[in-house]
Amino acid sequence: MSRGTELTYLLCAVGFILALKGLSGPRTARVGNLVGAGAAVLAVAVPFLTLDLDHVPLMLAAIAIGSAGGVVGAQRVQMTQMPQMVALFNGVGGGAAALVALLELQHMDAATPWFDVTATVFTVVVGSVSFSGSVVTFAKLQELMTSRPVIFPGLPVLFGLGLLTTVVLAVACVRDPAVLDGVLLALLGLVLGVLLVLPVGGADVPIVISLLNAFTGLTVAAGGYVLANVTLLVAGTLVGASGTYLTLLMASAMGRSVANILFGALRGGSTLGAGEASDRPVRSAGPEDVAILLAYAQRVIIVPGYGLAVAQAQHTLRELVDLLSERGVTIDYAIHPVAGRMPGHMNVLLAEAQVPYEQLIEMEEINGEFKHTDVVLVVGANDVVNPAARTTPSAPIYGMPILDADQARQVVFMKRSMRPGFAGIENELLFDPRTTLLFGDAKETLGKLLGAVKAL
Amino acid sequence: MTDDPIVWLTIFVLSVFVGIEVISKVSSTLHTPLMSGANAIHGVILLGAVIVTGTTDSTIAVAVGLVAIVLASVNMVGGFVVTDRMLQMFTRKRAPK
């Protein structure tokens, strides 16, 4: 490898560091992403320019096909479906890393240093786990399968046996590398990935995506070591480390530990409630009543949730908020860190509806405001305002910081039905005497509400 | 470069600290784009896929390598494009209103 090539690879590695740094600040994020893309393109160009490669036309065609697929997917995806898109991209990355490692394995034999073979075997297994795990998370979020935890009696035993077999086979493969062992390990990895993600409930799936993302990063790092390529090593390690850290941040935003998220459903039977409608009495009202409540309030806080985005009602909500502000109501959006399906997801969704950044207030800042608030309008959210997080130690969301909507003078819930939220537990706030329910599809009901406020 | 694993281990360990350090101050607003951007970065495994595929001869290995290249390209290109789409929305909201 020439000095020029090595320096170019170093440049790419620095590019990735700057990209991550940029991505973590609101003003620099877009530039950071572009720097990352530039570094990645440069890195991929290097072998074409410096090595005497075979099959160049075929490889270019493969890159064109993959890129076209990636671009089409990235352009078409709805912002609400972003988590599963990230899962899918992550999965194919993990799959690619596993395949690369399998190809490396064919050049290895008993004389290859054990450290190299170990790194290769690691990539094969973990890349496969990441691939199949991501496919299952995709299926859960896309609702191709149930988003509730899937548990069957032998699952922990099966997982344990699978893990044991994998370790034994991996050790055998390190001692005497063989491609067949590699293929078997890949298949075992696929099975383990499925078993790992099946018991995870829908609300926790994004955390798992983040974890699998970190896994894929580590496989790329291991691949970089095997190929003696500093760009791959640094890029993979950066993603592995920052991804792990991000996973911990997200889990703590939900007041959970990662172990509890992965294995909670296995340990304590089902941690989730029955998920059925309750028949306790609630107070409901029509759009006209709620319109009056909102239009003559001084201080209103909107709590948006995933239900808002599913109904594609962000734009109608923004119109309503604009109209109320014009009438002199002080109005803000309270953004829970895990509103939506991923941390920060709600910010993306509201930004798409062109809600001004200044109106999006984060939880810590706005929680003191609820005491002085006349009406809280909860649109398609549930768990993030559920007081059970403070009061019921047995609830799966216990310990999660919540928006203190229950301290406001009036709470209006816009809901499709009495079904519990994503975490599957009942919300006491719904039965509070200060609470009014406005049933119906979020978009349709907001439209009616908008008309009713206009008519006042 | 060198064949001594210690050098590579050193780079690895230092990169772990850098990886944690650079994102330690991220606000929860940016968690989703950051995850997506990091996801795109590991798509650079495409580089590894190209090197391995371009230096192999057996038909099966080339076929497997080409599959890896397609998958890695989806990850890398799609990942950066989708991250940009998300971030575009964050910047656009400053202009109007």
UniProtKB/TrEMBL annotation, chain A:
Domain NADP transhydrogenase beta-like: start-end pairs: 6-450
Organism: Nocardioides fonticola
UniProt-annotated location(s): Cell inner membrane
Main location group: membrane
Lineage, highest ranks first: Bacteria, Bacillati, Actinomycetota, Actinomycetes, Propionibacteriales
Residue stretches spanning the membrane: 6-24, 31-50, 56-74, 86-105, 150-172, 178-198, 205-226, 232-251
Family, per entry: Belongs to the PNT beta subunit family.
EC number: 7.1.1.1
Alphabetical UniProt keywords: Cell inner membrane, Cell membrane, Membrane, NAD, NADP, Translocase, Transmembrane, Transmembrane helix
PANTHER family assigned to the protein according to its UniProt record, in alphabetical order: NAD(P) TRANSHYDROGENASE SUBUNIT BETA (PTHR44758:SF1)
Pfam families linked: PNTB
UniProt catalytic activity: NAD(+) + NADPH + H(+)(in) = NADH + NADP(+) + H(+)(out)
Enzyme class: translocase
Gene3D superfamilies: TPP-binding domain (3.40.50.1220)
Protein name: NAD(P) transhydrogenase subunit beta
Secretion signal span: none
Membrane topology, as annotated: Multi-pass membrane protein
Record function comment: The transhydrogenation between NADH and NADP is coupled to respiration and ATP hydrolysis and functions as a proton pump across the membrane.
TrEMBL record, chain B:
EC class (word): translocase
E.C. code: 7.1.1.1
Record's keyword terms, sorted: Cell inner membrane, Cell membrane, Membrane, NAD, NADP, Translocase, Transmembrane, Transmembrane helix
Membrane topology category: Multi-pass membrane protein
Reaction(s) this enzyme catalyzes, per UniProt: NAD(+) + NADPH + H(+)(in) = NADH + NADP(+) + H(+)(out)
Cellular localisation: Cell inner membrane
Residue intervals passing through the bilayer: 6-24, 36-54, 60-83
Domain annotation NAD(P) transhydrogenase alpha subunit C-terminal: ranges: 9-92
Top-rank lineage group of the source organism: Bacteria
Function: The transhydrogenation between NADH and NADP is coupled to respiration and ATP hydrolysis and functions as a proton pump across the membrane.
Protein name: proton-translocating NAD(P)(+) transhydrogenase
Gene source species: Nocardioides fonticola
